[in-house]
Design goal:
- The protein is mainly alpha-helical.
- Helix content is 51%, strand content 0%.
- The chain has four helices and no strands.
- The radius of gyration is 32 Å and the shape is rod-shaped.
């Protein structure tokens, strides 16, 4: 067995690179599981091969999280409505039998308003292209 192993090792070392490549199985790309050739984007490689190409450092267009922005808008509007109603209840413009129930309306309004406002502000600044703001800062629900 040891002789078999040393014989196969010496045989593989004595084969040239072209003979080893010829012995390797090949795989057809045009077969069933591969990507169609018409959708592959190619780019010309640089003359000096340093292992890096410029294309790998380019950022694609930003992906806009529409669902998260819609949720932030909804939270902003509901929070604003609750704050307005709570303020009117607290000031007495809207008569209420128990004035102690107006404070929770204000608290819930503020708790719903703040995340909506925060994420809408990020979305607005990212859409205008301000430095330091991007759509990546908004949590996305499209996992």
């Amino acid at each position: 067995m040891c002789l078999d192993l040393s014989l196969s090792l010496s045989l593989s070392l004595s084969l040239s690179l072209s003979e080893r490549v010829a012995m390797m199985p090949t795989r057809s790309v045009s077969g069933g599981g591969g990507m169609p050739n018409n959708k592959v984007k190619y780019s010309r490689l640089a003359d000096s091969d340093e292992g890096y190409i410029d294309l790998q450092f380019k950022k694609g267009p930003p992906k806009v999280p529409y669902k998260a922005i819609a949720l932030a808008t909804f939270l902003f509007l509901i929070g604003s409505l609750l704050i307005i109603i709570g303020g009117l209840l607290l000031s007495g413009y809207i008569e209420v039998s128990d004035p102690n129930r107006t404070i929770p309306v204000l608290i819930i309004g503020v708790l719903v308003f703040l995340p909506g406002f925060y994420h809408l502000r990020i979305a607005y600044y990212a859409s205008k292209g301000y430095r330091g703001y991007s759509y990546d800062d908004i949590p996305d629900f499209d996992d």
